[in-house]
Write a structure and sequence with these properties.
486 residues; 72% helix
Length: 486
């Protein structure tokens, strides 16, 4: 490296050395490519500016190809660092010529790969030279382009094949670039309502990376909002929620959708962001419920999926009641990670909400918490009755619900907490007795249906026992390959 920089050599020889260094970034093995990219980064950092600008094309285009085509995440990160460093050192004139490349590639007549590459490059331009992007109306034009791109992609996306195809990538990189602009120029992006409408839809996108970056962007916006200024709706409003009627309800519904995903698709990062957003939303819902409605006459829509079949309670139009009811119903379904996310959400509500909000919805929160505690105790009693060792995981499952119950008791007061808890246990007992009585009556009135019920129960029990046996085997390492010693 020192030889390349300081030793006198002709133009052709220097160009040959640089081409060889760039060519090494295509090395077969990942470690070799990482080493060559580190060398490229050092060359970009050490070359005098006149030489760097002279050989910019030789470095820039191959690095862009590596950014798009390399299969290794570490290599792509290194390539991004190299391009960012290169852009940060160039003069405005040379930088403009490279920016024009990205603009030509972003044209609608270009192929999908070129358009996706341009979106990635725009993000690197924002990272490296924000001052350049802010000049000449480039930032406004870029936000408008991202809005059109994202809107078109969401309309055309096929959710059935999104996890196996590359349809999510354009959406992801558009959101990534928009997030960078939003962090640096937040007043600018607040005016792009079409973009925010698309971001709110991305919260329910099937790909987890898209969900995560959309949640992160929404949380960044919420964190910068001043709730005290929500009374007035104007062009300089405190949040896009004031400019898009009903958007607060859409965001809340999509965040609940994230938490309600199947157990194998649960993500701690996505759930954490959803909990942070919902903790901010619940207070806004309580103070300004009208933000959840598209117009004054509209009523909050509660789908049949949000209600239990045996619920007889009247549901009012309070957005806070809808939210806590939705989370409560999500936690009623089995799933350790899903329930854990809901209970952490309840714990966050205890921290940020007034006691009056919690007291009005205490029954909705205590019911799923008590259900998990009772199930855990029943499981432990069954293991003790069968003279089997107690499973530590079964006892740990009840730790979080018990902690949240304690938080609720401390916040709302012992008297009201114990009263509601006793009512919930009595209601659960009555429901259990009624179900047993209904099954007994079915055995006498419809023996065929009763037999089918028993067969179904036996099949489920066999499946459950088989799953438990496999879990114990995996815990003992039965299915792992043991090393062979010669």
């Amino acid at each position: 490296m020192q030889y390349l920089i300081e030793y006198p050599m002709g133009k052709q020889r220097l160009e040959t050395h640089l081409k060889q260094i760039v060519l090494n970034t295509k090395y077969e093995y990942e470690d070799g490519r990482i080493s060559s990219l580190e060398l490229v980064k050092a060359v970009i950092n050490k070359l005098p500016l006149p030489l760097l600008e002279e050989y910019t094309q030789l470095l820039f285009l191959p690095l862009v190809l590596r950014l798009v085509n390399d299969e290794s995440k570490q290599c792509r990160e290194r390539v991004g660092e190299c391009i960012t460093l290169l852009l940060s050192r160039l003069s405005t004139q040379v930088l403009l010529s490279l920016y024009e490349y990205a603009e030509r590639w972003s044209d609608e007549t270009s192929g999908v790969q070129l358009r996706r590459t341009s979106v990635q490059l725009f993000g690197l331009f924002v990272d490296a030279r924000l001052d350049f992007v802010k000049k000449g109306g480039r930032a406004e034009a870029l936000v408008s382009h991202l809005s059109r791109t994202l809107n078109a992609e969401i309309a055309d996306v096929d959710h059935t094949s999104v996890l196996i195809a590359k349809e999510w990538e354009m959406i992801y990189f558009s959101l990534q670039t928009f997030e960078k602009i939003s962090n640096a120029l937040s007043p600018l992006v607040w005016k792009e309502l079409t973009m925010w409408t698309s971001i709110f839809k991305c919260l329910a996108h099937p790909h987890p990376w898209v969900q995560l970056i959309a949640s992160r962007t929404v949380h960044s916006h919420f964190s910068s909002c001043k709730v005290s200024q929500f009374e007035k709706i104007s062009d300089n409003a405190a949040s896009v929620l004031l400019k898009i009627p009903g958007s607060l309800f859409e965001v809340t519904r999509n965040l609940c959708f994230e938490i309600n995903s199947e157990e194998e698709h649960q993500s701690d990062d996505i759930n954490t962001m959803a909990i942070k957003n919902l903790s901010w939303i619940i207070n806004v819902m309580d103070k300004y419920p009208s933000l959840c409605f598209k117009n004054e006459e509209a009523k909050l829509a509660i789908t049949e999926a949000d209600k239990e079949d045996d619920e007889e309670e009247k549901v009012n139009n309070s957005p806070v009641t809808w939210l806590i009811t939705r989370l409560s119903n999500i936690a009623k379904k089995r799933g350790t990670k899903r329930r854990e996310a809901v209970f952490k959400c309840f714990a966050a509500f205890v921290t940020v909400c007034d006691a009056s909000i919690l007291c009005n919805h205490l029954e909705l929160m205590i019911e799923p918490l008590n259900r998990v505690v009772v199930e855990s105790e029943a499981r432990e009693e069954h293991l003790m009755f069968m003279n089997q060792p107690t499973n530590m995981n079964s006892s740990e499952v009840a730790d979080l619900p018990n902690e949240v119950l304690q938080l609720l008791e401390d916040k709302c007061g012992t008297e009201i907490f114990i009263k509601i808890l006793a009512a919930i246990k009595s209601k659960a007992r009555e429901k259990r007795d009624s179900r047993k009585q209904r099954i007994a009556q079915e055995g006498m009135q419809d023996p065929e249906a009763a037999a089918k019920r028993r067969i179904t129960k036996q099949v489920k029990e066999k499946s459950r026992m088989k799953r438990r046996i496999n879990e114990r085997k995996i815990g003992r390492g039965v299915f792992t390959k043991k090393p062979r010693h010669h």
